[in-house]
Write a structure and sequence with these properties.
39% helix; binds zinc ion; 9-stranded mixed β-sheet; 20 strands; 5-stranded mixed β-sheet; alpha+beta
């Protein structure tokens, strides 16, 4: 057999799935989805077909009106179970009926108490990287794309949202059936479903937001400028090909900032600040509509193609929307973060390469910001080498040439060599992509706003605390830069002073607090623990939760309490979050 992707059992020589018609019933009592799926194949298939699954309860398999033989014939803790369909005979399609497991990795079933409204349950999926297989048997590799339709039956009080176009809603007894279609081919990791007590608010001609009624006003205000973001993104990246761009505001246990599900970004509620201060997150998720969703990494080893390009596009769009000063500030902040994270992982670790050999590695557990920032800095080097104008033309050609396709790092480099050969003379691409750490020879971002922060930091380190006046007008990223560059341990009195002078309570920004609490813990600010515990119970975003658990592990006084805190908040979090933190604690011997 030929395996193309270290994270999938699929053998693409056997044939590829090209379309799926789903009939899905959501059972909120049993926490399972009952599904009948009719698969179309891109070519006639005879013999065997291997599909990825994880904890799928398969009831039946048919092709050409005949029952198919099948077995789960290989299994692996990371990859799940290989479903081996046998005896296909010139099949152009096949049908499976099955149910998901209550603990399916991709699905989180939240009881009503964990929602904003508190009266209705909530279900949402997170299929990236390799969890679609826990929702439906598939070739769970980003190199296979398919279109789909779906009928989703849910209790009548709830609304189903999918990363697809909704075209009809029908009453059916005590239930409602929502109908969707996805005419653009997607890789399996972009399959997405959310069900809850949701309302919808139109924001612009192509934009809107789904949220629980309690959050809809705040969400609609926060993200009112999304249409403008699409306009600017189109100027950089080409026409937006997915029709609408909506948001679905998820409960706080969502493990990520956003998930770029096509047509509808799934978003953490921590992005609603009441200041429009974190809409660069939307810029990022929106940019994925081109870099990631339209042009897709062929395997998770090529993840930097998705995230590096998207982070680069985010900075370009931010420059137009918020000005060069802010874009420069973010670039320096990103560089500092990148260096800090690389030092933590180890500058020589293969995880600091852009192309990460990942056979046997769990993409969730080895997730870092390296492909984002190091990738974006490499792409900036390309831009600096050929100039913005030529590079803009290259971007448009790249997104149009590879639209609705998946490509490897090597295929990308081949294309780059054909279009911008001089880049290979000036930039050490080999070192950037295949070697760990950061090349010494590279452009270093500069920012006047960051230099302001530096001055205050230098003064603090020799004993002068910042005044309210000095920091009153600071941009969100200036505060983040300050917190990130503070010494790891400071006097407990200073923790209290800085929270006050930076006005963190009123700003109510979970990202600030993720840094701040980590500093407090390392500094031995023991009284802060109940607040930390409350924060960890309310926020499931890995980017915020992980630094706090790391600080606990590294601090003698808090170390032994980390496990108890994880157990106390476990029920409220997504399985991905629990899995990653659990692994971190285990590695620390806790
Ligand atoms: Zn991203």
């Amino acid at each position: 057999m030929t395996r193309h992707d270290p994270h999938s059992y699929a053998d693409l020589e056997q044939g590829k799935i090209s379309h799926i018609d789903f009939r899905i019933q959501a059972d909120f009592e049993a926490h399972i989805l009952k599904i009948r799926a009719e698969y179309q194949l891109a070519e006639l298939v005879s013999g065997s077909l291997y599909l990825d699954t994880s904890q799928i309860e398969l009831e039946s398999a048919h092709a050409n009106g005949q029952a198919l033989q099948w077995e789960f014939d290989e299994q692996d803790q990371l990859l799940g179970e290989r479903l081996h369909l046998k005896g296909l005979a010139n099949a152009s399609s096949f049908t499976l009926t099955f149910a998901t497991a209550p603990e399916a990795r991709a699905l989180q079933w939240l009881p009503a108490v964990q929602t904003a409204g508190g009266e209705h349950p909530f279900l949402f999926s997170q299929c990236q990287a390799i969890h679609a297989r826990s929702v439906f048997p598939c070739q769970d590799t980003p190199s296979v794309r398919f279109t789909f339709t779906a009928e989703v039956e849910v209790p009548a009080a709830l609304t189903a949202v999918m990363a697809a176009e909704q075209f009809e809603v029908k009453e059916q007894g005590k239930n409602k059936v929502f109908q969707f279609k996805m005419p653009q081919p997607i890789p399996s990791y972009l399959f997405a479903i959310g069900v809850g007590n949701l309302t919808f608010r139109e924001l612009g001609p192509r934009t809107g937001v789904y949220a629980e009624p309690e959050l809809i006003d705040a969400a609609a205000w926060e993200f009112a400028e999304n249409e403008e973001k699409i306009v600017q993104a189109e100027k950089l990246l080409g026409p937006y090909l997915w029709g609408r761009y909506d948001l679905l505001i998820l409960p706080p246990s969502f493990p990520y900032g956003g998930m770029e599900n096509p047509r509808v970004t799934f978003l953490t509620p921590t992005a609603i600040l009441g200041t429009r201060g974190q809409t660069s997150l939307i810029t990022h998720e929106l940019a994925h509509a081109w870099t990631g969703n339209l042009v897709t990494n062929a395997t998770w080893e090529d993840f930097w193609l998705n995230e590096g390009w998207t982070t680069y596009a985010e900075t370009r769009i931010t420059e137009v929307l918020e000005g060069k000063d802010v874009a420069d500030l973010m670039a320096v902040y990103d560089e500092q973060r990148l260096i800090e994270i690389m030092e933590r992982i180890g500058m020589e670790s293969p995880l600091t390469c852009l192309k990460v050999p990942s056979k046997g590695r769990d993409p969730d557990a080895s997730f870092t910001i390296v492909p984002y920032y190091k990738g974006a800095f490499l792409i900036k080097e390309f831009e600096y080498t050929v100039g913005r104008e030529r590079f803009n033309a290259f971007i448009r050609k790249y997104t149009s040439t590879y639209q609705f396709q998946s490509l490897t790092t090597e295929a990308f480099l081949h294309f780059l060599k054909g279009e911008l050969p001089e880049v290979f003379e000036k930039v050490n691409i080999q070192s950037w992509i295949y070697e760990p750490g950061l090349p010494v020879k590279r452009s270093k971002p500069q920012s006047a706003l960051y230099d302001e922060v530096q001055e205050v930091l230098v003064a603090y380190k020799v004993g002068t605390r910042p005044t309210k006046e000095q920091v009153a007008d600071w941009h969100r990223y200036q505060i983040l830069s300050f917190l990130q560059a503070l010494p790891k341990q400071i006097p407990v009195e200073d923790c209290k002073y800085l929270e006050d002078v930076l006005d963190l309570k009123n700003k109510n920004d979970a990202n600030h607090y993720a840094f701040f609490y980590a500093i407090c813990i390392r500094s031995g600010h023991q009284d802060i623990l109940p607040r930390v515990e409350e924060f960890l119970g309310k926020n499931g975003r890995l980017l915020y939760v992980l630094p706090i658990f790391r600080a606990m592990i590294e601090s003698d006084w808090a170390r032994e309490r980390a496990r108890r805190i994880l157990e106390s908040v476990r029920e409220r979090h997504h399985q991905i979050t629990v899995h990653v933190i659990n692994k971190l604690l285990k590695e620390a011997g806790l």
